[in-house]
UniProtKB/TrEMBL annotation:
Species per Swiss-Prot/TrEMBL record: Aaosphaeria arxii CBS 175.79
Protein name: Oxidase FUB9
Keyword line: Flavoprotein, FMN, Oxidoreductase
PANTHER family the UniProt entry points to: 2-HYDROXYACID OXIDASE 2, S -2-HYDROXY-ACID OXIDASE-RELATED
Cofactors named for this entry: FMN
Residues that hold glyoxylate according to the record: Y33, Y139, R174, H285, R288
Record domain FMN hydroxy acid dehydrogenase: where: 7-393
Family: Belongs to the FMN-dependent alpha-hydroxy acid dehydrogenase family.
Amino acid sequence: MAYNRDITDLQCLSIEDLRVLAAQRMDKQTRDYYNEGSDSGSTLAENITAYQKYRIRPRVLRDISAIDTTVNVFGQNSCMPVGAASTAMHCLAHPDGEIATASACKKQDVVMGLSSFATQTLEDVKDAIGDTPMALQLYLFEDRDHSVKLIKRAKAKGYKAVLLTVDTPVLGRRNLEIRNQFTLPKHLRIANFANRVDESSGDSDAKSTYSEAGYYDGEKRVWPRGPIRFHTHAANPTLTWEKDIEWLKEQCHPEMEVWVKGVMTGEDAVLACHYGVDGIIVSNHGGRQLNSSLATIDALPEVVAAVRSQEKRIPVHVDGGIRHGTDVFKALALGADFVWIGRPILWGLAYKGQEGVELALQLIRDEFKLCMGLAGITKVEDIGPDYLAKIDKNGFTARL
Ligand SMILES: Cc1cc2nc3c(=O)[nH]c(=O)nc-3n(C[C@H](O)[C@H](O)[C@H](O)COP(=O)(O)O)c2cc1C
Ligand SMILES: CC(C)CC(=O)C(=O)O
């Protein structure tokens, strides 16, 4: 369903406009937390600029009067090959938080990933999105009981998949978070950690549960002075393919699929297939974990090639740095089945709550549809490498 833009939205015609408008509406702590990458931020920047290495080869004189942007994801139709990535703590951006994001996704028919570190419960967010597919991003906590509880709750609510984040064996170093001594404001809570009974009695234990995660000491995030040895719910240094994937499949199947989020190499893609996951998200956590890792669009081709070399072809998604409809097109041309956008959703939320998220989604969708038409394509499945050229380091352009 189309979002009716009002006149002020004419100031906002691109995701970049949205970034600027959102920045004016967030306090410094939130803006820095959302926007920064780890260390120097070079991977965060390269996730975006790497798309410039590719140019589109448009075909002409084709009837493009009926363009269909729909795709199938998690077994259901979605209006475009773009989803709202799982990002933590939406209530920092807007009081309506994840529920506003989910309501926008429902209205726009867009898949959403919910972070384990959401500020509203997975039940309430699912109620807001209705039948539109949702996936629960999971940090596999060292305390397995807690993960089991979350998985059971997600299953009961009809979540389609669990996205196991695998790029956080330890947390990346985000310097602005350290400098700002990032703190969750007192009125917010990490809702899925809270005991729902306590919550209804008005005595939420979310804060203490969160600090149990080692992430906060009371109100403040704990930062190691010596060697990095984060021991948090998010960061679990003990996870392995052999030990944990089979266990997770047992907990989730058959009701929910098990995906791994954060695969960046062909070698790990082969292992993901070997251990029987249902899908892969090529991701470097939006440049927030290992700085100086490859840009995700540069890692994508080797992951796609590795998956295609396997007997069973599982879907490959990608996220990181996608800010334009043309970026979506390029990722699909390089073999992705679907992409996710993180910060653009948060910027929309900060700008105008649910309406802002709808605007972000519609901007991307409009641009993607326009790009398909101008490239001479009417169906998403026809987007392929023939439509791309790559610029090499000497500035020469060659077909893929
Ligand atoms: C503020 C913020 C919070 C995030 N929180 C999570 C999280 O809780 N779990 C997770 O797996 N990824 C998290 N991510 C990573 C996103 O899921 C996604 O990989 C990334 O945002 C994609 O890059 P983009 O922001 O450039 O689109 C977060 C990213 C941001 C920017
Ligand atoms: C609570 C955090 C670990 C969430 C996250 O993944 C992030 O900020 O990138």
